[in-house]
Design brief:
- The protein is of the alpha+beta class.
- It has 2 helices and 13 strands.
- Strands 1, 2, 3, 4, 5, 6, 7, 8, 9, 12 and 13 form an 11-stranded antiparallel β-sheet that branches.
- Helix 1 runs antiparallel to helix 2.
- The longest helix has 24 residues.
- The radius of gyration is 24 Å and the shape is elongated.
């Protein structure tokens, strides 16, 4: 008889945690992550590829027409430097993730570097980098050029409460299996 109570306890705990996760976020906003790759096609860096990713929430998206949301996180490694969302010239109102009819167009990310110069712009599927200098100091030896950007399909990032609920259920099932195995010995 204690086994039935254990099953009920595990099921109840798992259900309660799952419901708590749903209630904690009544708008049901999901977080997504998309990776991207920039392939340089012209200029001194032609033939090189650079990778990055961004995350965003979908709570403001309707799937109708042109839409944009501010990216929560951006990380892009370009030519030995990692650029983040905080370097976008319009942060915290940018960088933007853009959509058309619910389909991802891409990221609109235009950062400044440590010299307050514009090293590149990444706008949806196009990329352009710039040679620049700051007064008498040459800031970049990379020349100028362009490239193309490809994105992975955005993937849902699991919520921590959902992971916790599933972990409790899995632990309960493992405990039940272990107890069953020890009783058979």
């Amino acid at each position: 008889m204690p086994r039935i109570w254990q099953k009920i306890a595990v099921a109840t705990t798992g259900a309660a945690l799952t419901i708590a996760a749903i209630d904690a976020n009544p708008a049901h906003a999901l977080r997504f992550k998309s990776n991207f790759t920039v392939d340089i096609t012209t200029g001194d860096l032609a033939g090189n590829s650079y990778d990055g990713y961004f995350t965003f929430e979908d709570s403001e998206l309707t799937g109708i027409g042109n839409e944009e949301v501010v990216a929560d996180k951006v990380s892009f490694d370009f030519n030995g430097i990692t650029y983040t969302e905080e370097q976008d010239f319009d942060y915290p109102n940018a960088p933007l993730v853009e959509f058309d009819g619910g389909s991802l167009l891409g990221l609109n990310f235009v950062p400044f570097d440590e010299f307050f110069a514009l090293p590149f712009d990444l706008i949806n599927d196009s990329f352009q980098y710039f040679a620049h200098n700051s007064g008498e100091v040459v800031v970049s030896f990379q020349g100028e050029g362009v490239g193309s950007v490809t994105y992975t399909e955005p993937e849902t990032i699991p919520e921590p409460a959902t992971i916790l609920g599933l972990s409790v259920v899995a632990a309960g099932l493992l405990l039940r299996k272990k107890q069953g195995a020890s009783q058979n010995i």
